[in-house]
Amino acid sequence: MRKKIAAANWKMNCTLQQGEQLLDGILGANIELKAHQQAIFAVPFPYLTMATAKLNGRKGYSIAAQNVYNKKSGAYTGEVSAEMLQSIQVPYCLVGHSERREYFSESNQMLAEKIDLLLANGITPIFCCGEPLSIREAGTQNSFVAKQLEESLFHLSAEVVATIVIAYEPIWAIGTGKTATADQAQEIHAYLRSVLAGKYGQAVADQIPVLYGGSVKGSNAKELFSCPDVDGGLVGGASLNAEEFATIISSLP
């Protein structure tokens, strides 16, 4: 059975004290996760060790970094390397979030380099892909996301690609209040899996969790997560509310 994942992306939000209170509130719900379920918290760099300590001993609860640099080390002031993340036992890292692509001009090739460095350090990438509104309106979202997969992932072997997590983000539904319908989410997730199957075979494609990342809330999580090819969510705004995100975790099938 594929992993079912509720991943929180705090983005650039919360002071340390607010982050501690938020995690305490979510953990206070005492949600026991099944073997195939995971809750992952992508917190800002300064809070990684705090979050690690908070989640210590909680089965199925993990942390993630929100980004990593695409160089091993060197004179890159302000950047964080995969080796640094590995040294503090960070198990997951977001790669290619739409905001990184848009605001920091991250290319598919740069993301491929990040993925290679993370994998070399034993860190699982959560690879984000998805289309802006103009692409969706033009009806070319399938070829757009297929290119993202091909240029950032298809250099990997089948054995390696089977270990990563993919998060599909309809960029037009992030922070806008718009949400893809469950049918729209299922359709594009099934397409993504078919692209993976075309390269690596159906058995490998069926191992890869594909998360939905567009305005997931407590009120729509259960419907979205019930779709056969939607394996959970990458959650932004709603992850900053303890009760809301606890509801989302509880919605995992």
What does this protein structure show overall?
This protein has a single domain (4-250), classed as Aldolase class I (TIM Barrel, Alpha-Beta Barrel), CATH 3.20.20. Strands 7-6-5-4-3-2-1-8 form an eight-stranded parallel beta sheet. The mean pLDDT is 95. The protein has twelve helices and eight strands. With 253 residues, the protein is α/β, with parallel strands linked by helices. Strand 2, helix 2 and strand 3 form a beta-alpha-beta unit.
Task: Give short descriptive properties of this protein.
TIM Barrel; 8 strands; 42% helix; alpha/beta; 253 residues; eight-stranded parallel beta sheet
Please outline the helices and strands.
Layout: E1 4-9, H1 16-27, E2 37-42, H2 48-55, E3 61-65, H3 82-87, E4 92-95, H4 98-104, H5 108-120, E5 124-129, H6 133-138, H7 141-153, H8 158-161, E6 165-168, H9 182-200, H10 202-205, E7 210-212, H11 221-225, E8 232-235, H12 242-250
Parallel strand pairs: 1-2, 1-8, 2-3, 3-4, 4-5, 5-6, 6-7
Helix pairs in contact: 1-2, 1-12, 5-7, 7-9
